[in-house]
Design goal:
156 residues, alpha/beta, five-stranded mixed beta sheet, three-stranded antiparallel beta sheet, 5 helices, 8 strands, 28% strand
Amino acid sequence: MAGTPATVALTRAGITWTPHVYDHDPAAASYGLEAAAALGVDAERVFKTLVASVDGKLAVAVVPVTGQLDLKALATAVGGKRAEMADPAAAERTTGYVRGGISPLGQRKALPTVVDESATTYDTVFVSGGRRGFDVELAPMDLVRLTSARVAAIAR
Protein backbone atom coordinates (compact mmCIF):
# COMPACT_ATOMS: atom_id res chain seq x y z
CA MET A 1 0.00 0.00 0.00
CA ALA A 2 1.30 3.42 -0.93
CA GLY A 3 2.05 5.84 1.88
CA THR A 4 -0.40 8.42 3.08
CA PRO A 5 0.39 11.73 4.77
CA ALA A 6 -0.40 9.94 8.06
CA THR A 7 2.13 7.15 7.49
CA VAL A 8 4.72 9.64 6.26
CA ALA A 9 4.26 11.69 9.45
CA LEU A 10 4.56 8.57 11.64
CA THR A 11 7.68 7.40 9.85
CA ARG A 12 9.35 10.83 9.93
CA ALA A 13 8.67 11.07 13.66
CA GLY A 14 10.23 7.66 14.27
CA ILE A 15 7.05 6.35 15.90
CA THR A 16 6.38 2.62 16.06
CA TRP A 17 3.10 1.83 14.32
CA THR A 18 1.37 -1.07 12.63
CA PRO A 19 -0.69 -0.80 9.42
CA HIS A 20 -4.05 -2.58 9.24
CA VAL A 21 -5.79 -2.86 5.87
CA TYR A 22 -9.31 -4.23 5.47
CA ASP A 23 -11.94 -4.39 2.74
CA HIS A 24 -14.09 -1.31 3.18
CA ASP A 25 -17.81 -1.60 2.45
CA PRO A 26 -19.12 1.77 1.18
CA ALA A 27 -22.57 0.82 2.52
CA ALA A 28 -21.31 0.43 6.10
CA ALA A 29 -23.39 2.46 8.55
CA SER A 30 -20.35 3.24 10.72
CA TYR A 31 -16.84 3.23 9.27
CA GLY A 32 -15.32 2.93 12.74
CA LEU A 33 -17.44 -0.03 13.83
CA GLU A 34 -16.75 -1.61 10.45
CA ALA A 35 -13.01 -1.24 11.07
CA ALA A 36 -13.26 -2.81 14.53
CA ALA A 37 -15.20 -5.79 13.21
CA ALA A 38 -12.95 -6.26 10.17
CA LEU A 39 -9.79 -6.06 12.28
CA GLY A 40 -11.19 -8.22 15.08
CA VAL A 41 -10.43 -5.71 17.85
CA ASP A 42 -12.53 -4.25 20.66
CA ALA A 43 -14.42 -1.27 19.26
CA GLU A 44 -13.42 0.79 22.33
CA ARG A 45 -9.82 0.77 21.00
CA VAL A 46 -10.83 2.17 17.60
CA PHE A 47 -11.07 5.97 17.46
CA LYS A 48 -12.76 8.20 14.92
CA THR A 49 -11.48 11.59 13.85
CA LEU A 50 -14.09 14.31 13.79
CA VAL A 51 -13.68 17.90 12.69
CA ALA A 52 -15.71 20.55 14.48
CA SER A 53 -15.98 24.30 14.37
CA VAL A 54 -15.32 25.92 17.74
CA ASP A 55 -16.23 29.60 17.79
CA GLY A 56 -15.76 29.62 14.00
CA LYS A 57 -12.34 27.89 13.99
CA LEU A 58 -11.76 24.25 13.08
CA ALA A 59 -10.60 21.74 15.68
CA VAL A 60 -10.10 17.97 15.66
CA ALA A 61 -11.65 15.53 18.12
CA VAL A 62 -10.46 11.92 18.43
CA VAL A 63 -13.10 9.82 20.18
CA PRO A 64 -13.99 6.12 20.45
CA VAL A 65 -16.18 4.83 17.63
CA THR A 66 -18.49 3.43 20.31
CA GLY A 67 -19.36 6.88 21.62
CA GLN A 68 -20.29 10.34 20.52
CA LEU A 69 -18.46 13.62 20.66
CA ASP A 70 -19.56 15.95 23.45
CA LEU A 71 -19.37 19.25 21.57
CA LYS A 72 -19.56 21.35 24.74
CA ALA A 73 -16.64 19.40 26.26
CA LEU A 74 -14.62 19.87 23.06
CA ALA A 75 -15.27 23.63 23.09
CA THR A 76 -14.13 23.82 26.71
CA ALA A 77 -11.02 21.71 25.99
CA VAL A 78 -9.84 24.12 23.28
CA GLY A 79 -10.78 27.25 25.22
CA GLY A 80 -13.92 28.05 23.28
CA LYS A 81 -17.57 28.58 24.05
CA ARG A 82 -19.57 26.93 21.28
CA ALA A 83 -18.88 23.99 19.00
CA GLU A 84 -20.71 22.40 16.10
CA MET A 85 -19.72 19.82 13.55
CA ALA A 86 -17.74 21.34 10.70
CA ASP A 87 -18.98 21.51 7.16
CA PRO A 88 -17.78 18.24 5.55
CA ALA A 89 -16.26 20.04 2.56
CA ALA A 90 -14.30 22.36 4.86
CA ALA A 91 -13.10 19.36 6.90
CA GLU A 92 -11.89 17.58 3.75
CA ARG A 93 -10.27 20.69 2.29
CA THR A 94 -8.46 21.58 5.52
CA THR A 95 -7.28 18.09 6.49
CA GLY A 96 -6.51 16.83 3.00
CA TYR A 97 -8.49 13.64 3.62
CA VAL A 98 -11.93 12.38 2.54
CA ARG A 99 -14.76 11.78 5.02
CA GLY A 100 -14.51 8.30 6.46
CA GLY A 101 -10.76 8.43 5.96
CA ILE A 102 -9.79 11.53 7.92
CA SER A 103 -6.75 10.78 10.01
CA PRO A 104 -5.67 12.87 12.97
CA LEU A 105 -2.11 12.42 11.65
CA GLY A 106 -0.44 14.23 8.77
CA GLN A 107 -3.24 16.69 8.13
CA ARG A 108 -2.68 19.37 5.51
CA LYS A 109 -3.12 22.08 8.14
CA ALA A 110 -2.34 21.51 11.81
CA LEU A 111 -5.51 22.05 13.81
CA PRO A 112 -6.02 22.13 17.58
CA THR A 113 -6.60 18.49 18.50
CA VAL A 114 -8.16 16.83 21.53
CA VAL A 115 -7.91 13.09 22.18
CA ASP A 116 -10.51 11.57 24.48
CA GLU A 117 -8.95 10.48 27.76
CA SER A 118 -10.21 6.92 27.32
CA ALA A 119 -7.43 6.38 24.75
CA THR A 120 -4.83 6.46 27.51
CA THR A 121 -6.26 3.32 29.12
CA TYR A 122 -4.96 1.16 26.24
CA ASP A 123 -1.46 0.12 25.23
CA THR A 124 -2.35 0.83 21.60
CA VAL A 125 -5.27 2.40 19.75
CA PHE A 126 -6.42 2.39 16.14
CA VAL A 127 -7.05 5.53 14.07
CA SER A 128 -7.58 6.12 10.38
CA GLY A 129 -4.42 5.82 8.34
CA GLY A 130 -5.68 8.37 5.84
CA ARG A 131 -8.03 6.39 3.63
CA ARG A 132 -11.10 4.25 4.01
CA GLY A 133 -10.15 0.65 4.76
CA PHE A 134 -6.83 1.55 6.35
CA ASP A 135 -6.14 2.05 10.06
CA VAL A 136 -2.89 2.47 11.93
CA GLU A 137 -2.24 1.11 15.40
CA LEU A 138 -0.03 3.12 17.73
CA ALA A 139 0.51 4.00 21.37
CA PRO A 140 -1.98 6.65 22.49
CA MET A 141 0.71 8.95 23.87
CA ASP A 142 2.52 8.81 20.50
CA LEU A 143 -0.76 9.96 18.92
CA VAL A 144 -0.98 12.77 21.45
CA ARG A 145 2.64 13.85 20.90
CA LEU A 146 2.52 13.74 17.11
CA THR A 147 -0.70 15.78 16.93
CA SER A 148 0.25 18.11 19.84
CA ALA A 149 -3.10 17.14 21.29
CA ARG A 150 -4.71 17.82 24.61
CA VAL A 151 -6.18 14.86 26.46
CA ALA A 152 -9.65 15.49 27.88
CA ALA A 153 -13.01 13.82 28.48
CA ILE A 154 -14.76 14.74 25.23
CA ALA A 155 -16.75 11.56 24.53
CA ARG A 156 -20.04 10.43 25.95
